[in-house]
Amino acid sequence: MLSAKEFLIKQRLLWLLKSRCRRTYVSVFFDGTDVVFLKSGKRRNECIAVELPVEDIDVLRSHLYDGDFIVFAGGKHVILQFVLANRRKWRKLVHWYRKGVNT
User: Fold this and answer.
1) pLDDT at 1 over 80
2) CA Rg, the chain, in Å?
């Protein structure tokens, strides 16, 4: 069961992944059993880490490398449907911000 904070983080991540905005760029990084989604911004980057089962991470690694874009300028990667279909398996969501390139 997700806490209220994790529920809001999950809704934020779903909004980012479903975004059709031309200025939205979301890349994927792997860290053990976690997958980190990074939304690139001008002033700050938004990071959301999600713990996934090992089988799902293996499927993602077979389609994506570290730093590949899953959402880019309104376009979407083919594997995004897999990520959204398995959103019930997401555990331990963590959200934080990092300074962007231009600050």
Assistant:
1) no
2) 13
- Give the model confidence (pLDDT) of 28-63 as tens digits: 999 988 999 999 888 889 999 999 999 999 999 999
Hey, what amino acid is at 48? Answer: I
What's this model's pTM, rounded to 2 decimal places?
Answer: 0.89
Q: Would you tell me how many other CB atoms lie within 10 Å of the CB of residue 3?
A: 9
Rounded CA separation 14/83 (Å): 10
Q: What is the DSSP string of 34-54?
A: EEEEEE--SSEEEEEEEE--H
| Segment 7-26, tens digit of pLDDT | 999 999 999 999 888 888 99
39 burial level (CB within 10 Å; 0-12, 13-18, 19+):
buried
